[in-house]
Amino acid sequence: RIEIDFAHTPRAFVSILDDGGGMSRDELLQAMRYGSRDPREARPSGDLGRFGLGLKTASLSQCRRLTVATLQNDELSVAIWDVDECERQGCWWLITPESSAVPDELIQALRSKGHGTAVVWENLDRLLGSSNAAARRALDATMAGASDHLALVFHRFLNGILGKQVSIRVNGRALPAFDPFLEGHQRGQALHSESFPIDGHIVTVSPFVLPYPSKLKTADLEKSGGRELLKVGHGFYIYRGGRLVVPGGWFRIVPADDLVRLARIRVDVPVELDHIWKVDVRKATAEPPA
């Protein structure tokens, strides 16, 4: 269960709270290091990390103060990166305060779960407008876009297809579980899947033909990702460890004309093949090998 909350007043913040296993103090300090993992290191098939940069770079690209609080075996550990404090100290200065540095409601939520991690963004220099009204509009719009993005990128986790079902809520609202292939729809087609080895790992390709939009009910349109995605989202859907990295496009393999508007091709790539697919640190792009 992942709970994302945000507010504009009395102070602007974004928090991400999960009920995972949590981290020990040593694991937290390691997680707050830049480049904390060797990208060449073998990882389990379900591990979505690679470079040891994501938590820090994703957070500090949106805020100037990142707090991580984690609870494991009844031990609460807290660490903070504050860009302004680093500038004052003239070095990379990791703050390891008492739990009072974390909002009480988050600490209580962690303790009620018994284990887990809370990530808090404050001093939101990239997310807010210049005035209070502009700040509210900017944060609302950004978080609405983020909700749609998360619902699509992690739709197979939300659907429980990859094992244990994941729940993501944004300010209490559960994200919808999309299915860009509308598998099982009586008017669609699921064509023959193929699996083949690359460097000792299996890549699976599964093609689908969607129903004509005129044959879809409103609920089907919403489930497929919306009418706009239905128009432009044809092509290859590249998944890395079950997480959607590339939502459509043809990689110049075929021209994007009307003949392929309803075609979507799911490609499942294991995390061990990052190097051949040129997966970058953002995990937002991938290129198929020759």
Helix content: 25-40%
User: What would the principal axes of the Cα set say about the shape?
Assistant: globular
SSE ordering: EEHHEEHHEHHEEEEEHHEEEH
Radius of gyration: 21 Å
- Please provide the count of β strands: 13
**Major beta sheet, specifics?**
7 strands, mixed
Indicate the structural class: alpha+beta
**Order of strands side by side in the largest beta sheet?**
4-3-5-2-1-6-7
SS field, number of helical segments: 9
List its salient traits.
6-stranded mixed beta sheet, 290 residues, alpha+beta, globular, 7-stranded mixed beta sheet
Task: Explain the overall architecture.
Helices cover 25% and strands 26% of the residues. The chain is an alpha+beta fold and 290 residues long. The longest helix has 22 residues, at 132-153. The chain starts with a strand and ends in a 13-residue tail after the last helix. 25% of the residues are buried.
Summed up, what is this model?
The chain is an alpha+beta fold and 290 residues long. It has helices at residues 25-31, 54-60, 83-89, 104-113, 132-153, 155-158, 218-223, 227-232, 274-277; strands spanning 2-7, 13-18, 65-72, 75-82, 116-122, 168-170, 173-174, 189-190, 194-198, 201-209, 235-240, 243-247, 263-269. It contains 9 helices and 13 strands.
